[in-house]
Amino acid sequence: MERRQFLTNTLGLAAAAQAPASASEIIIERAATGEPHKGKVLALVTPHLDDGPHFCCGTVAKLLKEGYTGYFIRTSNDEKDSFDLTLGETVAANERDTGEFLKACGLKQAFDLGYRNHRMDDVARTEIRARLIFLFRLLKVDTVFSYDPWGHYEENPDHYVTAQAVEAACWMSGGHLDMPEHFAAGLKPHSVREKYYFARGPQLVNRVVDIGPTVETKLACLRSCRTMMAHFVRDLNASLVEKNLRIPVFSGDETAAIHEFTRLRTENWDRVVGRKYGMDYAEEFHYIGPDKSMDEYVARHAEHI
Ligand SMILES: [Zn+2]
Fold first, then answer.
1. pTM
2. Has residue 123 got a pLDDT over 70?
3. CA torsion sign, 220 to 221 to 223 to 224?
4. Could you give all domains of the chain from N- to C-terminal order, each with its CATH number?
């Protein structure tokens, strides 16, 4: 997440603007009763700890409540995201916060791939893809959440490099000739069937998820990224000082400042998105589901053997 754009939206200086291509194409996903997803596995795959909390953890929390088991795959080491820590201290602080994020969200385990923050365009995408294929097969991932590899005007290389590796790994993990050495280790081909892509800029939105019932969990996820949220707050304070201004709630106790800052984030972003669709809070995605084009034919013609 880039700080400048986040601050603009959080302060309400501009509405989150992701116009859907066509209202008729949008599916609204609301809370389900019971655990219809029991037995399914989701993976949140992002370069940075705070990407999921900003863009999709209301939906991730909803799906976990509905029975999914969830994992977090963090591709970068987040070494650049603190206000005044050293590079090494920043890696350790965000690693600790990752543990808090897992608890806040209800995810089972994190895998840190550890690539250098803001330098992922220097890494072979085939290597990242290979590591993701291994994890998708190992964890038997059915559903992924990640940046939209086709989102527009993305300026952070970590975001689009991760997104492209995720998209390719989702289908290649199902191939019996892709990395066959995995099968000698006991793994099996396993395609990812559902993708929820989010973006910071314009994207083709075809699914909107009502996160009203899980917005408190989303807030807890944001607040668990304490080092990063403190970075936002202190960047804001520094920019205000340059104009001889201060906001008292952001200038005192850090916990109170983060609390208010994250509250503003959901009010000025998720609530704005929700209002477009008649909901209190919502998250937007480009959703790609399983190919069902053969289902009817199979139902009509398949025989038991
Ligand atoms: Zn990010």
1. 0.91
2. yes
3. positive
4. 3-17+25-290 (3.40.50.10320)
